[in-house]
Amino acid sequence: IHTVGTFQVGDYVVFAFLFVVSSGIGVFFAIKERKKASSKEFLVGGRQMSCGPVALSLTASFMSAVTVIGAPSDVYRYGASYVIFGVAYTFVVFFTAELFLPVFYRSGITSTYEYLELRFCKLVRVAATFIYIIQTILYTGVVVYAPALALNQVTGFDLWGSIFATGIVCTFYCTLGGLKAVVWTDAFQMVVMVVGFLTVLIQGASRAGGIESVWSTAHTGGRMDVFDFDINPLRRHTFWTLTVGGTFTWLGIYGVNQSTIQRCISCKTEGHARWALYLNLLGLWIILFCAVVSGLIMYTFYSRCDPWSAGSVSAPDQLMPYFVMEILGAFPGLPGLFVACAFSGTLSTVAASINALATVTYEDFVSQCFRDLSNRAANWISKALCVVFGVACTTMAVAASYMGGIVQAALSIHGMCGGPMLELHFDNFKAGGLIVGITLSFWVGVGAFIYPAPSNNTRPLELNTAGCNFNLTADGSNQTSVTASALTSDRYWLADSWYSMSYLYYSAVGFIGTVAAGLLITLLTGPMDPKKVKPGLTRSVKDVICFCSEKFIHADFSEDKEDLGDFGMAWEKHTDMEGVIKMEEKVKSDNDNLHENGYTNAAFDHNETSQVQAKL
């Protein structure tokens, strides 16, 4: 590997500043909130957050180092079709804000999987929680390890030092400050990400000859062929895989993911939570745009000499750090700013994961086994869980080296688990289809890992080495073609069909499999009685379609957070369905008109119900 440059003292100072500020925020909230020693304050911030910092936190958490380093590399190799993810983001945020958020927020629950027990049974809740824990630890391992490895191999930045520093700092401020520290640290890290990207965009465009040169070269190289309407599900990226498959994948990440919903329900009102999601959509578009343009600029800069084909880097994920060192290496501190940008994404994702894992473990297991815990004991247990999962996520980073390209690996993990989990929140069928859905999605995902899709499905674009001033090694591109032909000559028959499916469809496969199995089980055992599905656990199609109602348009952010009322508190106190049903029936008897208006909100008390009706 050819090293462009190494980190200087100024770069380490800039990078260290990120860790110091992040830790400082944790210490600040630990001191500020020391008198509010309760698990609710620690895990959901006392439900008093505003939409601004929550929006920044959501964007920073899901636009991780996978996006900062992996997305530009993806654009470099496959073209700017990656930008179509913006369409999927739009659908995902809309459905999350209008379909899932109202149900979760008004219920007063802390763990999203608590909903599944109220909807189905305790076994489904436990199974879903276990799946989420495994999924999140796997994903976090990729997020920590892959960018650290890429930076290490290009810049000489210490690999294990950065991994352990990430784990220690995240665990530190999560344990001290809880959700408030996570949210405000994410907001700071989001600013660092944008500044780092802008630095690369400005200097990169200048070195590449300007925006016109970037556009012209990218167009000539086929990188601007964005819209491919081929419906073949085996194709890696087309308009349909990115919109349909991307929506399924990201809806599993956003709509029913504990990390997302936990921060939404921490907002002081439902209006703040909804606007946090829509403001987050703007942030997603901005980061996506920066990543795509960075990839196009990088392609233009290396259009005559591809570092990967020339052997200067050993993997595509190293292209972005290599590019940054080449264009910013002469400016002390700026390479450190980019590394801080990448690790801001890592820190925000890891911190959100640790906090969410601690939350679901406490709510779904600890609080169910030990019902009489004091606030102090609950708070200390929550902190201890943050430490445990911080260690687990850091340890998992070692195994991530075997997962391939970081973008595909990260989204594949979410896709395999997210589809079946998403379906559970959509239907009224029996929940037994979860096992079938998980089996199908892991079958195709693991099979694709063992038998990588052939190039006629992935279709990487041509890379040029004609302008390189050094010769290719003997084991250069010819070695790659021989390996590819060897792989295609003796392949399992499923390898070129089932296992070659686009990784973005893994979530859809799990979703459809769960629906089909649920229908079959329902036909064999009889349907669920619709009367047993309480109105507060569902969201009608009318409410989703007519989202621009007077209530939505005239949402008042100045009013205090709606009190969770009897039914919301009942969900936390009563884990048995009978207790919840009795409590809801009591609330419903206060005002039957709630159900008639399609806005049944069992979290409101009687006086607040009158106010809502007045607005309607």
Automatic annotation (TrEMBL):
For the biological process aspect of GO, one term held by this record is: sodium ion transport
Q: Which GO terms describe its cellular component?
A: extracellular exosome; plasma membrane
Q: Does the keyword Glycosyltransferase apply?
A: no
Q: Which residues cross the membrane?
A: 12-31, 51-70, 82-105, 126-147, 159-176, 188-206, 237-256, 277-302, 322-343, 380-400, 431-451, 503-524
What would be an example GO MF term here?
Answer: symporter activity
Question: What topology does it adopt in the membrane?
Answer: Multi-pass membrane protein
Keyword terms, alphabetized? Cell membrane, Ion transport, Membrane, Sodium, Sodium transport, Transmembrane, Transmembrane helix, Transport
Q: Which domain of life does the protein's organism represent?
A: Eukaryota
Q: Would you indicate the residue range of the signal peptide? A: none
> Which compartments is it annotated to reside in?
Cell membrane
InterPro entries membership? Na/Glc_symporter_sf, Na/solute_symporter, Sodium:Solute_Symporter_SSF
**Family statement:** Belongs to the sodium:solute symporter (SSF) (TC 2.A.21) family.
Q: What is this protein called?
A: Sodium-coupled monocarboxylate transporter 2-like
Record gene name: LOC107677464
